[in-house]
Amino acid sequence: MRRRIALRGSLALLASTMLAVSSCSSESKEATASAHNTKSDSSSSAEAASGCSKMTTLNASLSLGRPMAGILLGEQSGIFAKHCLKVEESDVSSPPTAITAVLGGSADITSVPINNIVTTAEQGVQLRVVGPNLSIPANALSLPPAKVDYVGVYAAKGNTISSAKDLAGMKVGVAGRGTQSEIGVAAAVSADGGDPAKINWAVLDQPTMLQQLQAGKLDAATVTSPFTSQLESLGYQRALSPSLALFKPGANFNVWVTAAKDLDAKHGAMQTFHEAILEVNEYARAHPDEIDQLVADKTKASLAAIKSGPGVSVNDDVVLDRDITPVAGTLLKLGYIKKMPDLTSVIGIR
Fold first, then answer.
1. Where in the cell is it found (predicted)?
2. What architecture does CATH give domain 140-246?
């Protein structure tokens, strides 16, 4: 049976999630207006320090984890300031929530998995890619799975997963329906000759998923780094790395996006962000320890757990035929979309 996974989150809820813009001086109407227009005292200081006549401020809605690291690094390294850019972050629970914020205007940019680009395009949602974020290493097939995939499938004690098709008929924990981890598992099962429609998906947050796996209430779970390190310390072994069934070596699996209307209205700012994030990516390749520490500090995970996962892998571009079209074909085959969407305009800045 073909499945239809709808984008979660309602635009009707956007008003309650609008980002608050605080002023540097609540005693002055002039300062309040200045802050509302992204020209706060701190921005003025940054302008003076960087030699910029004016700072461009963008709001980023970000899910906690490795995908947000580029924003953290851009600010800490001074690269954003060099480009006369300031990015203010707001944490959200998931990519669908971040997409809702961007479409509603309470955020300018976010990072999302490629599969979200495809599913939203099929629904007529106008997102535009403004830069590459994370990619599968080009040499992925020669690396240990934990150094390639942030997601691992782990079997409960007493269960055996000798190949992906064994997951058919099992109760498998996922962070959400239609997520990168679910689609990756479905793709792996299908490629192995199994029927992903027979998987009993259980939607759980990561801490609850780990608890239920250890209690034997799940047959298997899709676990993300750094929780993978926690499970492995308890003797669990990774049975499958599902992302490689969805994304090919060398391809982007996570990109920076904005709403089409914002790309048109704020094209100069988005172009500045594009140029800055490419420089951030280059810096990240040369300073992997710095980005690992930033992620550890932000997520409150141990540095050892972060380092046990994938290293820095980023591209300098986003290519439709390499990164997006193949994923769309997989989603169509598996029934996550009903028809191939028009993707010709989805890359807003190249």
1. Periplasm
2. 3-Layer(aba) Sandwich (3.40)
Q: Give yes or no for a contact between 216 and 130, defined as CB atoms under 8 angstroms apart.
A: no
pTM: 0.84
Does the N-terminal peptide bond of residue 226 adopt cis geometry, omega within 30 degrees of 0? yes
Look-up: residue for tokens 């073909």? 2
Residue 102: burial class (beta carbons within 10 Å; 0-12, 13-18, 19+): buried
Name the token pair of 330.
């997989």
Residue 4 above 80 pLDDT?
no
CATH for 11-136+249-334 is 3.40.190.10
pLDDT digits (tens, 9 = 90+) for 14-72: 333 333 323 333 333 333 333 344 434 444 455 555 689 999 999 999 988 889 999 99
CA 21 to chain centre: 24
Confirm whether 11-136+249-334 and 140-246 share one CATH topology. yes
Q: What is the mean pLDDT of the chain?
A: 87
Q: What is the pLDDT of residues 196-209, one digit of tens each?
A: 999 999 999 999 99
For the chain, the structural domain boundaries read 11-136+249-334, 140-246
